[in-house]
Amino acid sequence: MARRKPIIAQRSLAKERKPEEMRPSNAERSAYFARREAAKVLRSTLQGDARRRAVGSIKSLVYSPSIRNKKATFALVCQTLKRLSVIKDVMEEANVLSAKWKGVSLYGDAEKYLMLKKDALHSALSRILSRKGVKNVEDLVALDKFSEQKPRYVRVNTLKIDTENAIRELRQEYEVQKDDMVPDLLILPPGADLHKHPLVTNGSIFLQGKASSMAAVALGPKPGWEVIDACSAPGNKTLHLASLMKGKGKIIACELNEERVKRLKYNVKLAGATSILCVSSCPPPICIRKIPDKLKILLDEIMRISPMRSKPSICVLLYVEVKHGDFLKLDPNDPSYSKVRAILLDPSCSGSGTAFERLDHLLPSHSAGHSDHADVRRLQKLAGFQKKVLEHALSFPAVERIVYSTCSIHQIENEDVVSSVMHLASSHGFQLATSFPQWPRRGLPAFDGSEHLLRTDLTTDKEGFFIALFVRKGVQKPKDYERNAEDHTDIAGRTKAYKPRKPLNIFIAKMLKVFPHPHFKLPRKKTMELISQDI
Ligand SMILES: C[S@@+](CC[C@H](N)C(=O)[O-])C[C@H]1O[C@@H](n2cnc3c(N)ncnc32)[C@H](O)[C@@H]1O
């Protein structure tokens, strides 16, 4: 069937009207396009949903290049989906879903047709409202169990700002509460749009959900540890680890996907976690001996402003090494990993627990958890991979703690994976431990010990997440490890320094910060000025 010309085109062809009447205003044009674009996205989403086949998340459809007015289209799609059951009920009640309706082209005529039926639709809505005993459409929507909105969680990047200062800044615009379980996690009202907030754009806070923030806390790395984040992009948990380690230690952030590595590197840099160096007067345990010229100038300047007893040196406090590669290919017996004490394992999964984030709950058949044959095969394949990475993590000799996490609600990716490695885990001396013992929702009773596991619930917590914590006690630490552990805190209160693997000059070029040691009483502001001038 030939498509009719859009209203705008029809209008512009109408010769008998005056030009100022013919031309729609900018607001009209943009509303018209947003309605058309929203209709297109809704059609793909609802058709995909009807066939139980994901055509992409609503966000990915709206943010595709073909959509011009993304913000308005997204708002229209969400608002329509949120009210979809009400819209359907009203249409049925008003009997507008007749044979006549089915013959109507969706390009423009549908809108005109509905405007003609406006009175009938209004009275149908009034009848439904009085039947359900509610006052307005919002109350009708609120009867839906998924309508309750998820609060906006933000995690403070304590490498850049302390939590109290972040709260003070955010309170200028929003109500802010501290989460009672995850330190430095703040709760803001649902719908708080922080994407362009300066604290977000400068990496002082990260938009990260509560469940996802629980994984790094469950791992509990100490400042100065060496940790592997096995499947790390875009780096939310890597950077959370860096904060929890108070900017001291080493994190090897491994990521297979090249595109995602770029995002990871960007986020590591944004968070100020590339490497954190400390300027000190006494030689640190490992120091950078070949200091590049630019840094030498800086150090001389530091000497000039704040006289030191000896020439200052630099030690690395935190080093986040982004490794583009397959975690399964890291050799656990390579001496480079002999000091790794903790592994965070957050492998690719079905993502079924993020249905709320993907706005799936707005879809009519809300099929998170529904699986057909293809889905089952896909889940089995994912579970096979998840088991492999978990087995691999268990084989690192000095590792004491492993967190396995997924944003899936499926037992096959969660309890079943954990249960399948329990034999191997205990042969390596690992046991399951209870993370967040105060949390009420634990693992499904799939095997003895599943009460140690942690789950968050898609309906109650608006996010389905899973955490298993493996702990090994009495690990035989390598000799040099013991020695370094003693070095962890030196007389000046600094932690052990780490030697970068990359050529020194590249490493220094990546340096983001130089912290003066408090003993030298060098004003931080002055140092930061020097850094921005010199590096
Ligand atoms: C669930 S995401 C990780 C999210 C991340 N932990 C965060 O909090 O930002 C899983 C990541 O693992 C990566 N990945 C998949 N297989 C991998 C492998 N064999 N080695 C390393 N990374 C892998 C994927 O590309 C994906 O970026």
TrEMBL record:
The active site is at 407 (nucleophile). The keyword Transferase applies. Residues 1-28 are annotated as: Disordered. Keywords: Methyltransferase, RNA-binding, S-adenosyl-L-methionine, Transferase. It holds the Pfam family NSUN5_fdxn-like. It comes from the Eukaryota. InterPro entries: MeTrfase_RsmB-F_NOP2_cat (IPR049560), MeTrfase_RsmB-F_NOP2_dom (IPR001678), NSUN5_7_fdxn-like (IPR049561), RCMT (IPR023267), SAM-dependent_MTases_sf (IPR029063). PROSITE patterns: SAM_MT_RSMB_NOP. S-adenosyl-L-methionine binds at residues 231-237, 255, 326, 346. Residues 13-23 have a biased composition (Basic and acidic residues). Residues 142-473 form the SAM-dependent MTase RsmB/NOP-type domain. Belongs to the class I-like SAM-binding methyltransferase superfamily. RsmB/NOP family. This is SAM-dependent MTase RsmB/NOP-type domain-containing protein. It comes from Rehmannia glutinosa (Chinese foxglove).
